[in-house]
UniProtKB/TrEMBL annotation:
Name of the protein: Glutathione-dependent disulfide-bond oxidoreductase
Species of origin: Vagococcus bubulae
Pfam families: GST_C_2 (PF13410), GST_N (PF02798)
Signal peptide stretch: none
InterPro entries the UniProt entry points to: Glutathione-S-Trfase_C-like (IPR010987), Glutathione-S-Trfase_C_sf (IPR036282), Glutathione_S-Trfase (IPR040079), Glutathione_S-Trfase_N (IPR004045), Thioredoxin-like_sf (IPR036249)
Occurrences of domain GST C-terminal (ranges): 132-261
Amino acid sequence: MTDYQLPNVWQWEDENSNRGGNRPTAGSRFEKKLPVGNAPFQVYSLGTPNGVKVTILLEELKELGVKGAYYDLYKIDIGEGDQFGSDFVSINPNSKIPAMVDQSQTPQVDVFESGSILVYLAEKFGKFLPTDIHGKTETLNWLFWQVGSGPFVGGGFGHFFHYAPEKLKYPIDRYTMETKRQLDLLDKVLADRNYIAGEEYTIADIAIWSWYGQLVLGNLYKGSAEFLDVSNYSNLIEWTNRIADRPAVKRGLSVKYQSID
Protein backbone atom coordinates (compact mmCIF):
# COMPACT_ATOMS: atom_id res chain seq x y z
CA MET A 1 0.00 0.00 0.00
CA THR A 2 1.36 3.42 -0.97
CA ASP A 3 1.43 5.98 1.81
CA TYR A 4 -0.86 8.93 1.23
CA GLN A 5 1.14 12.07 0.50
CA LEU A 6 -0.47 15.19 1.92
CA PRO A 7 -0.70 17.98 -0.67
CA ASN A 8 -0.15 21.58 0.37
CA VAL A 9 -3.72 22.40 -0.65
CA TRP A 10 -6.44 19.75 -0.73
CA GLN A 11 -8.31 19.39 -4.02
CA TRP A 12 -11.63 17.61 -4.49
CA GLU A 13 -11.17 14.93 -7.14
CA ASP A 14 -14.73 13.62 -7.46
CA GLU A 15 -16.60 16.52 -9.04
CA ASN A 16 -19.78 15.43 -10.81
CA SER A 17 -23.16 16.73 -11.87
CA ASN A 18 -25.19 14.34 -9.69
CA ARG A 19 -27.75 16.01 -7.48
CA GLY A 20 -26.76 13.78 -4.54
CA GLY A 21 -23.45 12.85 -2.97
CA ASN A 22 -21.07 14.80 -0.77
CA ARG A 23 -19.41 17.98 -1.94
CA PRO A 24 -17.18 20.51 -0.19
CA THR A 25 -19.79 23.22 -0.77
CA ALA A 26 -23.16 24.03 0.80
CA GLY A 27 -26.44 25.29 -0.63
CA SER A 28 -29.25 24.02 -2.84
CA ARG A 29 -28.48 22.20 -6.09
CA PHE A 30 -31.88 22.25 -7.77
CA GLU A 31 -35.37 23.71 -7.44
CA LYS A 32 -37.79 21.49 -5.56
CA LYS A 33 -41.08 22.42 -3.92
CA LEU A 34 -41.94 20.44 -0.81
CA PRO A 35 -45.52 19.35 -0.12
CA VAL A 36 -47.28 21.00 2.79
CA GLY A 37 -50.11 19.31 4.67
CA ASN A 38 -52.65 20.63 7.15
CA ALA A 39 -51.17 19.30 10.40
CA PRO A 40 -49.49 21.76 12.78
CA PHE A 41 -46.09 20.19 12.19
CA GLN A 42 -44.54 19.38 8.85
CA VAL A 43 -41.67 16.93 9.27
CA TYR A 44 -39.23 16.24 6.44
CA SER A 45 -37.08 13.32 7.44
CA LEU A 46 -36.01 9.69 7.07
CA GLY A 47 -35.97 6.70 9.43
CA THR A 48 -32.34 7.10 10.47
CA PRO A 49 -31.28 7.30 14.14
CA ASN A 50 -31.46 11.09 13.99
CA GLY A 51 -34.73 11.04 12.08
CA VAL A 52 -36.63 8.69 14.38
CA LYS A 53 -35.92 10.89 17.40
CA VAL A 54 -38.56 13.29 16.10
CA THR A 55 -41.23 10.75 15.19
CA ILE A 56 -40.77 8.97 18.53
CA LEU A 57 -41.22 12.21 20.49
CA LEU A 58 -44.27 13.23 18.47
CA GLU A 59 -45.81 9.79 18.99
CA GLU A 60 -45.04 10.01 22.72
CA LEU A 61 -46.85 13.36 22.84
CA LYS A 62 -49.83 11.86 21.02
CA GLU A 63 -49.78 8.92 23.43
CA LEU A 64 -50.28 11.41 26.25
CA GLY A 65 -53.23 12.95 24.41
CA VAL A 66 -51.42 16.24 23.84
CA LYS A 67 -53.51 18.43 21.55
CA GLY A 68 -51.67 19.96 18.62
CA ALA A 69 -48.96 17.29 18.38
CA TYR A 70 -50.11 16.01 14.99
CA TYR A 71 -47.79 16.04 12.05
CA ASP A 72 -47.41 15.31 8.36
CA LEU A 73 -44.32 13.24 7.64
CA TYR A 74 -42.49 13.36 4.32
CA LYS A 75 -39.59 11.23 3.15
CA ILE A 76 -36.35 12.98 2.28
CA ASP A 77 -34.34 10.35 0.40
CA ILE A 78 -30.77 11.34 1.21
CA GLY A 79 -29.47 8.70 -1.20
CA GLU A 80 -31.22 10.54 -4.03
CA GLY A 81 -30.12 13.98 -2.84
CA ASP A 82 -33.57 15.25 -1.78
CA GLN A 83 -31.88 17.19 1.02
CA PHE A 84 -30.32 19.52 -1.54
CA GLY A 85 -33.62 20.72 -3.01
CA SER A 86 -34.37 24.44 -2.71
CA ASP A 87 -37.33 24.19 -0.33
CA PHE A 88 -35.55 21.82 2.03
CA VAL A 89 -32.41 23.98 2.09
CA SER A 90 -34.58 27.01 2.91
CA ILE A 91 -35.68 25.17 6.08
CA ASN A 92 -32.27 23.66 6.87
CA PRO A 93 -29.30 25.41 5.21
CA ASN A 94 -27.13 22.51 6.42
CA SER A 95 -28.99 20.02 4.17
CA LYS A 96 -29.37 17.32 6.83
CA ILE A 97 -32.43 15.49 8.09
CA PRO A 98 -34.55 15.92 10.11
CA ALA A 99 -36.13 19.31 9.52
CA MET A 100 -39.45 20.52 10.83
CA VAL A 101 -41.83 23.42 10.28
CA ASP A 102 -44.25 24.54 12.99
CA GLN A 103 -46.98 26.16 10.94
CA SER A 104 -49.19 26.74 13.97
CA GLN A 105 -47.07 29.85 14.57
CA THR A 106 -47.27 33.09 12.58
CA PRO A 107 -44.90 33.42 10.94
CA GLN A 108 -44.01 29.73 10.80
CA VAL A 109 -41.02 28.44 12.77
CA ASP A 110 -38.37 26.43 10.92
CA VAL A 111 -36.44 24.02 13.14
CA PHE A 112 -33.47 21.87 12.18
CA GLU A 113 -30.98 19.62 14.00
CA SER A 114 -32.60 16.73 15.85
CA GLY A 115 -31.56 17.97 19.29
CA SER A 116 -33.03 21.40 18.63
CA ILE A 117 -36.30 19.84 17.43
CA LEU A 118 -36.54 17.72 20.59
CA VAL A 119 -36.02 20.75 22.83
CA TYR A 120 -38.48 22.84 20.79
CA LEU A 121 -41.26 20.26 21.07
CA ALA A 122 -40.55 19.46 24.72
CA GLU A 123 -40.67 23.13 25.70
CA LYS A 124 -43.69 23.92 23.53
CA PHE A 125 -45.79 21.19 25.13
CA GLY A 126 -44.17 21.02 28.56
CA LYS A 127 -43.42 17.30 28.33
CA PHE A 128 -40.33 15.08 28.60
CA LEU A 129 -38.10 17.93 29.79
CA PRO A 130 -38.10 18.61 33.55
CA THR A 131 -38.72 22.17 34.65
CA ASP A 132 -36.63 22.12 37.83
CA ILE A 133 -33.10 23.38 37.31
CA HIS A 134 -31.41 20.13 38.29
CA GLY A 135 -33.58 17.82 36.20
CA LYS A 136 -33.57 20.11 33.17
CA THR A 137 -29.82 20.62 33.28
CA GLU A 138 -29.12 16.90 33.63
CA THR A 139 -31.44 16.15 30.72
CA LEU A 140 -29.73 18.74 28.52
CA ASN A 141 -26.31 17.50 29.65
CA TRP A 142 -27.11 14.08 28.21
CA LEU A 143 -28.91 15.39 25.16
CA PHE A 144 -25.84 17.39 24.17
CA TRP A 145 -23.63 14.43 25.07
CA GLN A 146 -25.48 12.39 22.43
CA VAL A 147 -25.25 15.17 19.85
CA GLY A 148 -21.50 15.38 20.41
CA SER A 149 -20.84 11.65 20.75
CA GLY A 150 -23.08 10.28 18.00
CA PRO A 151 -20.78 11.20 15.10
CA PHE A 152 -18.08 8.92 16.53
CA VAL A 153 -20.57 6.05 16.31
CA GLY A 154 -22.16 6.88 12.95
CA GLY A 155 -19.55 8.72 10.93
CA GLY A 156 -16.70 6.92 12.67
CA PHE A 157 -17.47 3.34 13.72
CA GLY A 158 -20.47 2.82 11.44
CA HIS A 159 -18.73 4.20 8.39
CA PHE A 160 -15.51 2.21 8.67
CA PHE A 161 -17.13 -0.97 10.03
CA HIS A 162 -20.05 -1.09 7.59
CA TYR A 163 -19.92 1.39 4.71
CA ALA A 164 -16.26 1.93 3.80
CA PRO A 165 -15.26 0.17 0.56
CA GLU A 166 -12.31 -1.51 2.30
CA LYS A 167 -11.78 -2.62 5.89
CA LEU A 168 -8.92 -0.71 7.52
CA LYS A 169 -7.65 -1.78 10.94
CA TYR A 170 -6.56 1.61 12.27
CA PRO A 171 -9.87 3.52 11.92
CA ILE A 172 -11.94 0.47 12.91
CA ASP A 173 -9.86 -0.01 16.07
CA ARG A 174 -9.97 3.72 16.86
CA TYR A 175 -13.73 4.12 16.54
CA THR A 176 -14.58 0.73 18.04
CA MET A 177 -12.63 1.69 21.15
CA GLU A 178 -14.50 4.99 21.43
CA THR A 179 -17.89 3.37 20.78
CA LYS A 180 -17.28 0.74 23.45
CA ARG A 181 -16.17 3.47 25.86
CA GLN A 182 -19.47 5.24 25.27
CA LEU A 183 -21.45 2.03 25.75
CA ASP A 184 -19.59 1.38 28.99
CA LEU A 185 -20.32 4.92 30.16
CA LEU A 186 -24.05 4.49 29.55
CA ASP A 187 -24.03 1.10 31.24
CA LYS A 188 -22.39 2.56 34.34
CA VAL A 189 -24.79 5.53 34.45
CA LEU A 190 -27.80 3.22 34.19
CA ALA A 191 -26.56 1.05 37.05
CA ASP A 192 -28.22 3.31 39.63
CA ARG A 193 -30.98 5.10 37.72
CA ASN A 194 -33.88 3.96 35.55
CA TYR A 195 -33.40 6.55 32.85
CA ILE A 196 -30.49 8.48 31.46
CA ALA A 197 -31.14 11.71 33.37
CA GLY A 198 -32.62 10.14 36.50
CA GLU A 199 -35.95 8.50 37.30
CA GLU A 200 -37.94 10.28 34.60
CA TYR A 201 -38.17 9.39 30.90
CA THR A 202 -37.00 12.44 28.93
CA ILE A 203 -35.87 13.63 25.53
CA ALA A 204 -32.37 12.50 26.57
CA ASP A 205 -33.60 8.90 26.55
CA ILE A 206 -35.22 9.38 23.15
CA ALA A 207 -32.07 10.87 21.63
CA ILE A 208 -29.70 8.30 23.10
CA TRP A 209 -31.93 5.27 22.52
CA SER A 210 -32.32 6.16 18.84
CA TRP A 211 -28.58 5.60 18.41
CA TYR A 212 -27.29 3.41 21.21
CA GLY A 213 -30.45 1.42 21.90
CA GLN A 214 -30.75 0.50 18.26
CA LEU A 215 -27.05 -0.32 18.18
CA VAL A 216 -27.52 -2.70 21.12
CA LEU A 217 -30.51 -4.28 19.37
CA GLY A 218 -28.42 -4.88 16.25
CA ASN A 219 -30.57 -2.57 14.13
CA LEU A 220 -27.89 -0.22 12.82
CA TYR A 221 -24.95 -2.05 11.25
CA LYS A 222 -25.12 -5.75 10.42
CA GLY A 223 -22.97 -7.77 12.80
CA SER A 224 -22.06 -4.77 14.94
CA ALA A 225 -23.79 -5.92 18.14
CA GLU A 226 -21.70 -9.11 18.17
CA PHE A 227 -18.54 -7.25 17.12
CA LEU A 228 -19.00 -4.77 19.99
CA ASP A 229 -19.91 -7.58 22.42
CA VAL A 230 -22.93 -5.63 23.67
CA SER A 231 -24.00 -8.54 25.88
CA ASN A 232 -21.55 -7.23 28.48
CA TYR A 233 -23.65 -4.11 29.06
CA SER A 234 -26.52 -5.54 31.10
CA ASN A 235 -27.88 -2.25 32.44
CA LEU A 236 -27.87 -0.74 28.98
CA ILE A 237 -29.63 -3.81 27.57
CA GLU A 238 -32.38 -3.61 30.21
CA TRP A 239 -32.96 0.10 29.51
CA THR A 240 -32.88 -0.52 25.76
CA ASN A 241 -35.52 -3.23 25.91
CA ARG A 242 -37.76 -1.26 28.26
CA ILE A 243 -37.83 1.71 25.91
CA ALA A 244 -38.21 -0.50 22.84
CA ASP A 245 -41.42 -1.86 24.39
CA ARG A 246 -43.06 1.56 24.63
CA PRO A 247 -46.02 1.76 22.20
CA ALA A 248 -45.05 5.25 21.04
CA VAL A 249 -41.50 4.13 20.29
CA LYS A 250 -42.82 1.26 18.19
CA ARG A 251 -45.06 3.66 16.26
CA GLY A 252 -42.26 6.19 15.84
CA LEU A 253 -40.14 3.52 14.18
CA SER A 254 -42.87 2.18 11.89
CA VAL A 255 -44.68 5.38 10.90
CA LYS A 256 -45.35 5.84 7.18
CA TYR A 257 -43.50 8.48 5.18
CA GLN A 258 -45.27 10.33 2.39
CA SER A 259 -43.49 10.99 -0.91
CA ILE A 260 -42.39 14.52 -1.77
CA ASP A 261 -43.02 13.90 -5.48
